[in-house]
Amino acid sequence: MDARTVIAGIRDGKTPSVDEIRWFAEGLANGSVSDAQAGAFAMAVLLKGLGKDGRTALTMAMRDSGRRMVWPDDAPVLDKHSTGGIGDCLSLVLAPALAACGAVVPMVSGRGLGHTGGTLDKMEAIPGLSTLADERSIRRIIGDAGCAIVGASDDIAPADRRLYAVRDVSGTVESIDLITASILSKKLSAGLAGLVLDVKAGSGAFMKTPDDALALAYALVETANAAGCKTSAVISDMNQPLASAAGNAVEVVEAMKTLTECENSNLLELCCALGGRALCDSGLADGMKSGSEKTRRAIESGEAANRFGRMVAAMGGSTRFLEDWKSILPAASIVREFKADRAGCISAIDGQKMGLAVIALGGGRNVESDQINPAAGMSEILPLGSAVNSQDSILLVHADNPERAARAEHLVRSAIEISDEPSVAPPLVHKWILG
């Protein structure tokens, strides 16, 4: 076998064999496939596609290019993945809630990408906490808390790491086949029995339209189930931040409020919906409604918060985080109101511009080497449909200097639309795709 033959076949519209895909993934991992060949492969897949069987083969081959975790047969190993959005700190609530319901949750997460926030960046806003973990550390953390929110180690899906870097510089990021294989190869390497997917649609998502989000969701669900992992997906709305904050420490605050106060919110609603689906699919609940109620009880009882606190301690954070999180989390030196310039109703929030405002504050990255200010961001963001008077506060800006705050406020001004007519927010859940 050689890379040119595999690439030419895909270019000509042929579905590569399982053996060809596996050979190519091994070449990506061990370096025998060159960067030029990897780029040509990615472009061929973008233009011609792999088909369902080829996509599944690539996912499993990239999964198998590195280390895979194995768990006891009686362990309900569950996880969740989001395709990215603004104010989406749901993983910080759902992982400990699922653990409190009896699941094992090895959540391999990522950093911020483009205008969207990253779960690892949010976790690392907690002083002392490290998301770097090998398999032994993951098992130790899960032994303490039932869940671990960590980054992928170097031996997890190395073929994907190589292909991901090439896609970023070759104009092939948008391929649904490559997106699917990239997401699932890392997730499935954790030895999952069940997975729930939160595929975002709207101004703050990578998939702006429901049709694009639906196409990705179907590809992910079909592929994961074909690979032997029971998987369902929800199409959820991202035309406004999920929580009322966007940033890192400020989103940890929102997660902790949900875990300790259990106030009704979009964040809690979506957490219970995804938790309900995961528990139902895994047999830990009799149905989705029962699973949702079980997830909510885990939060209301304080057990999910307890699990989160134990996880933080096991990952190097304070052993008193659960009791003292308000004083432990970093705070910005400047916090100021962003006010409405007219009376009316908030009728649109451009999520991408809101994400770019967080980056302007220092809460995200323009390039991979940028250092993040964990305290930077926005909080108390009013939701769509809110009525405001002129000079009412729409949100709070958290910054480390006035210049950064001013740049962010300029972006926020262009992101938020205030209209004369009343407005209603779209539904949070658009559609379920069940495995």
Task: Describe the structure in brief.
With 435 residues, the chain is an alpha/beta fold. It is built from 17 helices and 13 strands.
Structural notes for this entry:
- It is a single chain.
- The protein has 17 helices and 13 strands.
- It is α/β, with parallel strands linked by helices and 435 residues long.
- Strand 4, helix 10 and strand 5 form a beta-alpha-beta unit.
- Helix 2 runs parallel beside helix 4.
- The chain is globular, with a radius of gyration of 21 Å.
- The two termini are 35 Å apart.
- The model has no long low-confidence stretch (mean pLDDT 94).
Question: Any key phrases for this structure?
Answer:
435 residues; 47% helix; 4-stranded mixed β-sheet; alpha/beta
What topology emerges from the helices and strands here?
Blueprint lengths: L2 H9 L6 H13 L4 H14 L2 H13 L14 E5 L7 H11 L4 E5 L9 H5 L11 H11 L1 E5 L6 H13 L5 H13 L5 E8 L8 H17 L3 E8 L8 E2 L1 H13 L4 H17 L5 H13 L2 H12 L6 H8 L5 E6 L4 E6 L1 H10 L16 E3 L7 E2 L4 E7 L2 H14 E4 L9 E5 L2
Parallel strand pairs: 1-4, 2-3, 4-5
Antiparallel strand pairs: 5-13, 6-9, 7-11, 8-10, 8-12, 9-11
